[in-house]
């Protein structure tokens, strides 16, 4: 399971000391991009298809990855609630609410900002969002309760079995007023609010349902403050333990509710709580746990449009975020590999690559509309320069890298064949109809053979800081795909499909 993002505060070196390095890397980026020639529409198609391979519950008639079958059809039954559906977050069979909600938020944001670029894939993107929100509505169906996890991670991780076969504990974990979880509840509210924007014109009744539920869940998260890993430590740690704190999720949810509802109340909440909830912390962190960079970029759009001058500090933070991730700046939490990939210490590095790159692309569009650039010491980061940097990250993922390997399964001539994923690595139900038990799957886990089922579109954790990659299941930090790696990539691939 991917570890937490770093939450250290940023520090900067004088820009003049890094100026020559910056221009060298920028020129290198331009040359590499010019030589890329990636098929972005194909990659977009596959990046969305991946989510169908992560579906839990009863699969619909239009399911396109046919080696997957129905699974976990009784989730929630012991707790008297229907918790079927949703997504498995990665290569295991647990439904973790925190990363699932973040995945849904980023899928929704991808549609909001880049849906017009998705072409024929827009319908599939909407289905991916709705598969997430349908589950989140179930998880928030009881007032004052949010169901945040289905399955015991320890028993699940002790087995290597298909989701269709799993017989491990399907324990249901929840938060309530006596066991708060403002982080996971706040992210859930953000996901519901963001999705309400997606469906506002496409399905007004569903959009209203999402928004009303988002408001209720946010009120619960704000009234009963606390981190869910304090309430449910033994269940969620060390897998999706909240290291960064719950404050950022409250601001994040308020920002999405302001965008979705257009109510002044939420803007006032943001202004009132900006310092208390540490909006300026860790400006170059963004992921399922730390929302700070995302908050600043999201809110800045309004400021750049000439609205909400009382939120100017968020735009200042967003500008600092941009400068902190530019190549050539010495930064303890963010580096670039020799091949040009964003790299942060810890596991599953691609989650940082796709999430941070998504913010760079979104902000570059906001800057373009405002006709401005970001001043970074002695240079100015233009929207075009930011887009080139993002394209370099996307092209690296798709194969323009030292190993000439695509890190998206099924894309290009060479990609990972032994990903850390139970369903992909075990024989399908069609090939092996009889049950494969908990420990019987171990031989497939240890096998040097390629996975028999192609999880098309899955982007794995990726190479290390030297661009080396072991195509091996046991190296889960490098070889495991996750939904929150793919979700922001969907938006970027949509943009570059329309702007090759």
TrEMBL record:
Active site: 420, 471, 480
Keywords: Carbohydrate metabolism, Cellulose degradation, Glycosidase, Hydrolase, Polysaccharide degradation, Signal
Reactions that this protein is recorded to catalyse: Endohydrolysis of (1->4)-beta-D-glucosidic linkages in cellulose, lichenin and cereal beta-D-glucans
Molecular-function annotations in GO: cellulase activity
Keyword rRNA-binding applies: no
UniProt key word Transmembrane: no
EC number(s) given by UniProt: 3.2.1.4
Single biological process term from Gene Ontology: cellulose catabolic process
PROSITE patterns to which the protein is assigned, alphabetical: GH9_2 (PS00592), GH9_3 (PS00698)
Family: Belongs to the glycosyl hydrolase 9 (cellulase E) family.
Full protein name: Endoglucanase
Species annotation: Lithospermum erythrorhizon (Purple gromwell)
């Amino acid at each position: 399971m991917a570890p937490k993002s770093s939450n250290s505060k940023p520090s900067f070196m004088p820009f003049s000391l890094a100026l020559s390095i910056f221009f060298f890397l920028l020129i290198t980026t331009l040359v590499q991009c010019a030589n890329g020639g990636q098929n972005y529409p194909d990659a977009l198609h596959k990046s969305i298809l991946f989510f169908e391979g992560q579906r839990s519950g009863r699969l619909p008639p239009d399911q396109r990855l046919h080696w997957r079958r129905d699974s976990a059809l009784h989730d929630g039954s012991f707790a008297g609630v229907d918790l079927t559906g949703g997504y498995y977050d990665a290569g295991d069979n647990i439904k973790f609410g925190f990363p699932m909600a973040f995945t849904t938020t980023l899928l929704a944001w991808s549609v909001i900002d880049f849906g017009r670029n998705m072409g024929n894939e827009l319908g599939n993107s909407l289905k991916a969002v709705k598969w997430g929100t349908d589950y989140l509505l179930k998880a928030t169906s009881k007032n004052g309760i949010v169901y945040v996890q289905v399955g015991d991670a320890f028993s699940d991780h002790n087995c290597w079995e298909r989701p269709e076969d799993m017989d491990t504990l399907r324990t249901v974990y929840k938060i309530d007023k006596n066991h708060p979880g403002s982080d996971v509840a706040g992210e859930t509210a953000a996901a519901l609010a963001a999705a309400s924007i997606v469906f506002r014109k496409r399905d007004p009744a569903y959009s209203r349902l999402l928004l009303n539920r988002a408001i209720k869940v946010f009120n619960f998260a704000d009234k009963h403050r606390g981190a869910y890993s304090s309430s449910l430590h033994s269940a969620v740690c060390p897998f999706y333990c909240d290291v960064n704190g719950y404050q950022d999720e409250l601001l994040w949810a308020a920002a999405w509710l302001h965008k979705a509802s257009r109510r002044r109340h939420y803007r006032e909440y943001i202004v009132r709580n900006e310092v208390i909830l540490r909006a300026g912390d860790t400006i170059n962190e963004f992921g399922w746990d730390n929302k700070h960079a995302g908050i600043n970029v999201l809110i800045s759009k309004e400021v750049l449009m000439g609205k909400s001058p009382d939120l100017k500090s968020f735009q200042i933070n967003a500008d600092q975020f941009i400068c902190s991730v530019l190549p050539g700046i010495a930064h303890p939490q963010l580096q670039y590999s020799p091949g040009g990939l964003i790299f942060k210490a810890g596991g599953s590095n691609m989650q940082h690559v796709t999430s941070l790159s998504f913010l760079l692309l979104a902000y570059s569009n906001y800057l373009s509309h405002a006709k401005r650039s970001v001043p970074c010491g002695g240079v100015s980061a233009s929207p075009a320069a930011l887009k080139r940097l993002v394209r370099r990250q996307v092209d690296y993922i798709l194969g323009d890298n030292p190993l000439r390997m695509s890190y998206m399964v099924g894309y290009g001539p060479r990609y990972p064949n032994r990903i850390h994923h139970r369903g992909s690595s075990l024989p399908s139900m069609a090939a092996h109809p009889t049950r494969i038990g908990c420990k019987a799957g171990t031989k497939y886990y240890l096998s040097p053979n390629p996975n028999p089922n192609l999880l098309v579109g899955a982007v794995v954790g990726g190479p290390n800081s030297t661009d080396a990659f072991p195509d091996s299941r046991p190296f889960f930090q490098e070889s495991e795909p996750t939904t929150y790696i793919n979700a922001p990539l969907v938006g970027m691939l949509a943009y570059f499909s329309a702007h090759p």
